[in-house]
């Protein structure tokens, strides 16, 4: 048979029905400059080719011009077609676009044994043999996969002509032979001829043109070529199972070819990327490519970032979403965020325990080079504008009490007993204003962040780490700048006198809550100051309770994850009881400091973020039947009203039982505390406050939005790691759980005492709020936030 096809951008003419009369390769010129030459015998114009090889005559080689070569090929092609048509006694009529097409659209009736193509679903087209009718219109079909199913007539896309009683066992062989004969570039030559003649064509007619036969196999091959073609032909009309195709205009073909080339290049690029993914996925954990390696090439970076955006539901454009979808499909994965996430984990781009919320919420985890440089510059400046006005308190014994992994220490405490028996306490707060001026580069960055972020896997400070640690933070045994709030207490715990001043201190001890509690229990004579601090805290708590304060102390979980990038990192879990002596000591004196600053601001008309919390709707006596601690606190917190902020004057904080409150003790960690320091320090220097009440309100709204986001992140991260901790425990392990309340029927909200996590479970009849029950973990899936508990009934 004669075949005409384009290979690698060229056209290859070859005769398979006779000895190798000619074999050569020639390249088509770009369509924009394509020239045609008329062939008189066939009555059509043919493109002029620029030959690159010699023309080889049978039995010897000789050079030929492109024109004579075309003439030779066309003469043999015409002669060969003529012979085939005579033998086959087939008459093919190409219909012009102006003629009626009805005679070409006559459909064959469905009958048993027909070989037909049909749509199985939106993505699959199968070949099958008609078996028998199924109802009035449907037919049972045996397909290439050996499956018999019922199809509707409208699912049929083509009936292979010239076939009766096709052997269904031969379907696969027929398909294989068809695939072997497919050569889409054959359409190029047919398109040239049909475009010149302005003719339309059916699959059978095309088969006769390019294969010299309209036998079943050739006709189906032509159908496949036409139905899959996206460049040269378009469907003019379809009726039932038959379609008529027409050649597209030259300009349209040029444009489609350009698009096809771009599409093919993109497809190759996609396949190359898929191979990279498969290669990375197959490697062991220690040999995975580093994350940075995916960022070297811009195109690879775009694809990997598209997958990342898909994994966290944060794509920036439809194109990015589409790119991720194509990658997942090419990898044989479902188009879902979880598929993208698991893929990124499997190639080592994400660690197994990647914090998705950290990515979704766009939390800043690093400081830019500009901010770090500005911080370095501040550290190199040794001047202190408050040096002459700082009160020297280095003679005091100073206790800094915090969690053991605290990186930045904001506050410390001192106490003495006066001759009249009253207690004087000092709350020393780190003085970042020594380095940071309002509106400076570092200040604007701190405002943008709003707060430091504390997660089980790490800390992301509000200020650059070196500035916070080396410049601002309080350090044991070193002279440190501070703002010290001094308070003398009456015997009933109320405030007798106070002062606020810039100071210099020398912290004596850096204690954890656990070690401070232990020292209090030991009651050592040499640590009398710590005992006085504890006594002052007890006085304050009693006084606040008389003022209507509500105790909401509960259990608090703290987790430290070591090597969080590892698949199985070490998890250190700590449970802190807020009623613990050391924790109570610190919290009481921080509240005292907040009250003093609010009073100081009010007396001096300083705009500050004054916090308050209405209490009018809380009747604590209603909950007196509940056990003190987490159970009662949980019930009260559920009905507490949200806190309020006024920037002109103090407002009562009913829950704390004090007339006013300003957060002041964490200026390195919280921006609103820093704002309070800006205002107070300006007054102490004899300057006007840098911000008006209105300006403070505007900045506070920005900060509070960010704080809410960080709070949500901290909560979800803590819960993730607690569930991961539980997942690793033995399945038979039993946990104590307090019943906080009943949600519905016997489904109760529980507090797991050993891990400080709230969850829910069904509890047996007879159990009441405040009771303790035993539970075990049935399921724990941190990624899906699933924790299933079951009560254990002891005999």
TrEMBL record:
SMART domains for this protein: RNB
One CC-aspect GO term: P-body
GO terms for MF: 3'-5'-RNA exonuclease activity; RNA binding
Family annotation (InterPro entries): HTH_RNase_II, NA-bd_OB-fold, RNase_II/R, RNase_II_barrel, RNR_Ribonuclease, WH_RNase_II
Residues that span the membrane, as ranges: none
Domain RNB: start-end pairs: 390-686
BP term (GO), one: mRNA catabolic process
Pfam families noted in UniProt: CSD_RNase_II (PF23163), HTH_RNase_II (PF23161), RNB (PF00773), WHD_RNase_II (PF25255)
Protein name as catalogued: Ribonuclease II, chloroplastic/mitochondrial
Gene: LOC111311949
């Amino acid at each position: 048979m004669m075949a005409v096809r384009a290979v690698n951008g060229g056209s290859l003419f070859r005769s398979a029905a006779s000895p190798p009369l000619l074999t050569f390769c020639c390249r088509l010129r770009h369509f924009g400059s394509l020239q045609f030459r008329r062939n008189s015998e066939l009555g059509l114009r043919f493109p002029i080719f620029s030959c690159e090889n010699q023309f080889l005559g049978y039995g010897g080689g000789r050079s030929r011009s492109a024109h004579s070569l075309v003439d030779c090929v066309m003469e043999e092609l015409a002669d060969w077609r003529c012979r085939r048509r005579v033998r086959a006694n087939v008459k093919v009529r190409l219909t012009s676009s102006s003629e009626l097409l009805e005679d070409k659209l006559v459909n064959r009736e469905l009958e048993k044994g027909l070989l037909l193509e049909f749509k199985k679903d939106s993505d699959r087209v199968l070949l099958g043999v008609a078996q028998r009718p199924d109802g009035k219109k449907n037919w049972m079909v045996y397909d290439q996969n050996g499956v018999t199913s019922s199809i509707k007539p409208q699912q049929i896309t083509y009936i292979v002509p010239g076939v009766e009683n096709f052997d269904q066992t031969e379907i696969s062989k027929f398909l294989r032979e068809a695939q072997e004969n497919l050569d889409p570039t054959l359409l190029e030559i047919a398109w040239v001829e049909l475009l010149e003649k302005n003719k339309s064509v059916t699959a059978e007619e095309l088969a006769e043109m390019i294969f010299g036969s309209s036998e079943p196999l050739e006709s189906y091959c032509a159908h496949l070529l036409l139905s899959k073609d996206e460049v040269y032909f378009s469907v003019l009309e379809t009726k039932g199972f038959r379609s008529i195709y027409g050649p597209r205009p030259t300009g349209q073909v040029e444009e489609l070819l350009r698009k096809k080339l771009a599409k093919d290049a993109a497809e190759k690029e996609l396949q190359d990327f898929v191979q990279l993914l498969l290669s990375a996925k197959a490697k062991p954990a220690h040999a995975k490519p580093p994350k940075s390696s995916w960022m070297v090439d811009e195109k690879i970076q775009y694809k990997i970032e598209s997958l990342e955006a898909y994994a966290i539901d944060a794509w920036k454009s439809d194109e990015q979403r589409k790119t991720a979808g194509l990658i997942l499909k090419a990898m044989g994965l479902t188009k879902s965020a979880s598929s993208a996430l698991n893929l990124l984990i499997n190639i080592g781009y994400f660690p197994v325990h990647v914090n998705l919320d950290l990515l979704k919420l766009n939390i800043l985890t690093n400081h830019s080079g500009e901010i770090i440089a500005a911080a370095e510059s501040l550290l190199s400046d040794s001047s202190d504008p408050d040096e002459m006005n700082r009160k020297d308190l280095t003679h005091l014994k100073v206790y800094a009490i915090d969690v053991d992994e605290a990186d930045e220490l904001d506050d410390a405490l001192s106490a003495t007993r006066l001759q009249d028996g009253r207690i004087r306490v000092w709350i020393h707060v780190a003085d970042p204003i020594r380095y940071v001026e309002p509106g400076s580069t570092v200040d604007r960055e701190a405002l943008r962040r709003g707060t430091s972020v504390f997660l089980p896997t790490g800390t992301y400070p509000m200020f650059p780490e070196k500035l916070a640690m080396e410049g601002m933070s309080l350090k044991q045994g070193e002279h440190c700048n501070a703002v010290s709030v001094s308070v003398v207490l009456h015997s009933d715990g109320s405030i007798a006198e106070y002062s606020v001043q810039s100071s210099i201190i020398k912290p004596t001890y850096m204690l954890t809550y656990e070690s401070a509690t232990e020292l209090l229990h030991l009651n050592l004579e040499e640590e009398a100051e710590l005992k006085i601090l504890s006594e002052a805290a007890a006085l304050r708590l009693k006084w606040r309770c008389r003022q209507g304060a509500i105790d909401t102390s509960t259990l608090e979980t703290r987790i430290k994850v070591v090597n969080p990038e590892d698949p199985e990192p070490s998890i250190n879990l700590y449970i802190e009881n807020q009623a613990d002596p050391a924790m109570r000591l610190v919290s009481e004196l921080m509240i005292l400091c907040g009250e003093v600053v609010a009073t100081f601001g009010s007396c001096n008309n300083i705009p500050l973020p004054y916090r308050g919390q209405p209490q009018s709707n809380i009747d604590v006596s209603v909950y007196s039947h509940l056990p003190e601690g987490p159970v009662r606190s949980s019930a009260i917190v559920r009905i507490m009203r949200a806190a309020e902020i006024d920037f002109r004057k103090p407002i009562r904080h009913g829950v704390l039982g004090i007339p006013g409150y300003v957060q002041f003790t964490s200026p390195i960690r919280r921006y609103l505390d820093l704002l309070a320091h800006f205002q107070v320090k300006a007054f102490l220097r004899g300057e006007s406050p840098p911000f008006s009440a209105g300006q403070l309100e505007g900045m506070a709204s920005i900060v509070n939005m960010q704080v809410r986001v960080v709070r949500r992140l901290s909560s979800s991260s803590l819960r993730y790691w607690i569930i991961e901790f539980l997942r690793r425990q033995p399945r038979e392990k039993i946990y104590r759980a307090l019943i906080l309340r009943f949600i519905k029927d016997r489904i109760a909200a529980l507090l797991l005492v050993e891990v400080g996590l709230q969850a829910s479970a069904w509890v047996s009849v007879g159990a009441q709020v405040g009771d303790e029950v035993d539970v075990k973990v049935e399921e724990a899936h941190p990624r899906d936030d699933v924790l299933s508990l079951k009560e254990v009934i002891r005999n």
